[in-house]
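Hello again, I could really use a second opinion on something today. For a while now I've been wondering how a particular protein folds. Please have a think about how the structure follows from the sequence. Here's the protein in full, and shout if anything looks odd to you:

***
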Amino acid sequence: MAISVETFFLAPGSQGTLQAQIQQMIAEGILSGRFRRGEKLPSSRKLASHLSVSRITVTLAYTELLANDYLSSRGRSGYFVSENAPVPPSFSPPKKREDTVDWTRALGRRFTGGVTPDKPKDWAKYRYPFVYGQTDPSLFDHANWRLCALQALGQKDFTALTSDYYDQDDPELVEFIARNTLPRRGIIARPEEILITLGAQNALWITAQILLTQRRTAAIENPCYHALRDILNQSRCHVEPIDVDTDGLDPAQIPPETDVIFTTPSHQCPTTATMPMSRRHALLDHARDIDALVVEDDYEFEMSFTDSPSPALKSLDTEGRVIYVGSFSKSLFPGLRLGYLVGSESFIREARALRASVLRHPPGHIQRTAAYFLSLGHYDALIRRIREALKTRRAIMQTAINQSGLDVACAGAFGGSSFWMQLQADRDSQDLADTLRNHDVLIEPGSSFFSGEQAPKHFYRLGYSSIPADRIPDGIARIASVLKSP
């Protein structure tokens, strides 16, 4: 019995090359039991015509499946599902059973129920995704990243690919960060003062685990990065939210009993406010006076395009008081999960030991791929392209916002990739977000960024890193239209 050519179709938005998609489609058909042993597949010509792809693409897919014994070839008769092909297992999920364990009592610490909201996984299907922190595939340099990944898979880098570094990092990546990335922020650091992490959030977690206990106090910005608040709540330390203004965190409001101060001076998260130099010096002076450490999350410094970024707080530190958190996930792609910590050698030694006990080290192949991408100049070229795109989008968005009458609560002076917006005080941005989904628009409600049960609900964030420039005016118009409707 022959398998009908109509059985095959390529799902829109599928990942990978056409050849890989065809291989996966056929393999899944065999593994699911839809295609059975001995059944004849359509000829390469028919399947290519049906899928609107080249015949060589189908032939290469069939050849790979032959090599893996999913298919067999019978001379001029064509391709058949191999007699040695995997047989789909007879499996049905077991019925749910009731545990006798009292998990309410057994769980020593709860990590669920935090304030960090779930972001929509299907954001890309919306025509107007004003979401923050996602990658625009039209800007990313797929070709050179792939070449760097292949280079890192070569025999020359076999050790970097396969070795257990235990508590160490890829020396080439660390060297590039020390020699190129950090000096752009005015920071001079030795390799012993740098630790690679699985993104900025992992860096913040490591820092909190080392510096904070139930008896210590952390000062955070209000509003702030919600995942940081989850991390601090899990550490069970005392948390003091400090309201920010148009210049970011006000040092004068930080209580004297504070042990660790968390701040985002370059682009305050989420308001995008930039801390001026005078306040940066005041913050360091206040931290010295109360003998507190400062954790600087410099998550978006590469996205400064309207003016040159101010020097990092770490670059002004003469006492080793500042711990610096950086990330490549924002500038490359969020799924990379690659960041770094910079601090005094004593702190990094502890951070390295903690990381080693939890996850050893970030994968060597990812570190080496990133090192090649950075050192070969692809990263700088990508950043220039992203900056130009964001600069254009920001200008278009600013014009559209002005014309629509929407209210900007704060707009960072140096660029970034979002606007912090506000509604009338009696409006709820979550209700607005729910309504806008029906109009093909995504926005980010702002209440989860604030501390306390009485968090304001009339703020929201509009990101422009993931939406094409030509869609921005219509998207902003839709937001304004919904707000004006009764």
Notes: The radius of gyration is 26 Å. DSSP finds 16 helices and 16 strands in the chain.
